[in-house]
# Entry
Amino acid sequence: MSNAVNDGALSRNPATGEELARYPYDDAAALEKALVRSQRAFTQWRTTPLSERAAQLTRIAQALRQQAESLAQMMTREMGKPIVQARAEVEKSASLCDWYAEHGPAMLAPQATQVPDNKAVVAYRPLGTVLAVMPWNFPLWQVLRGAVPAILGGNPYLLKHAPNVMGSAKLIEKVLLDAGLPDGVFSAINVTNDGVSAAIADARIATVAVTGSVRAGQAIAEQAGRALKKSVLELGGADAFIVLNDADLDEAVKAAVVGRFQNSGQVCIAAKRIIVEAGVAATFEAKFIAAVQALKVGDPQDEETYIGPMARADLRDELHAQVQASLAEGARLVLGGEKLPGPGNYYAPTVLADVTPAMTAFRQELFGPVASLIVARDAEHAVELANDSDFGLGGTIWSADESTALEMAARLETGGVFINGYTASDPRVPIGGVKKSGYGRELSSFGLHEFCNVQTVWRDRR
# Structure
């Protein structure tokens, strides 16, 4: 469901319900103007020396740090992100720019092949404008983790952000332009679904990137496929967080709480299904409940707040319906399970226990501050439970025996596995999923090469 109205995209403070701004949708003429700017920028940016493109990323990192408070405050106002976490998101995004500025050029250098005398190499060329349809939950990081490698590779980036964070989209565009990025290399558009379809069909769009729901990914991938354009999809997740009998329970609980409740539980790659081996299930549950109860829920502007409001009222309603369905199916309510009274889209931190594969909390993605506790008979059963999902984004294993954890990791049907930690995105490693969590990868060299024409250059082939 979109948080938009007929006369434009609506930005509303989820902590108070206050309307912040309305952003008129771009009409066909405005979209055409953006496409012209991006195409014009491509002809120049693709030939800009790689060293200069990397230096531009360094300048963007500096600009992000200079505007850190403005960016953080905008995110907190628009989608309710606790302010401390919002500031951390800005710094993480700046560090991303620094990392690609330092390491990206080597990744784009011609790569030798097995052909003797280096007569055949693989070169990485820009593809053209990337149309990016991005979500609201990480308004800056989600954008830049795709935009930065695409821009370094010589591609313009055309952002279609979520309607409720259009203020963030406009501010990001301003910060990047003020940092010296040439006009049209990064642009933000505000279009309806029809506008997205028109852009995908336009020859000036080379490829499409989507982070969002399964439904959105299916619709956009279908259109991209019809236009014979590559797409990269990072969609939903129902990540398993496996705790074995020999795990350090105190550390596992700390990681599970962060992995499930950071960003008020609104994270794709997060510990949504906590699968605990039977021998420690009761002890883990008691420790976990105590840790969740200690989390402060409240005003996202308060630096002590860990859980703020959910981003939109309709999302809170959907989450509550999933919780109620799970209870009706036999789940045990341990904590929470209710909308909090008063203004704003607050939902009580919730823990459901005795969750089984037949329940909504197991089968669907619960995008909010709700954790599902599942008991596994043994390690083998834990792997079976983890893989019994339509999703395959990330997963976590807690065990004192690293060899056992590594063997289990090899059997998990996910794009990433984190041993004795919690799921996270980092520029040094790729992120992405399998099954209904999407395809393609972001970050690291893999994310950089997704938006390149991987070209074979073979000299003296006689």
User: Anything to note?
Assistant: The chain has two domains: 4-235+437-458, 240-426. The radius of gyration is 22 Å. The longest helix spans residues 83-107.
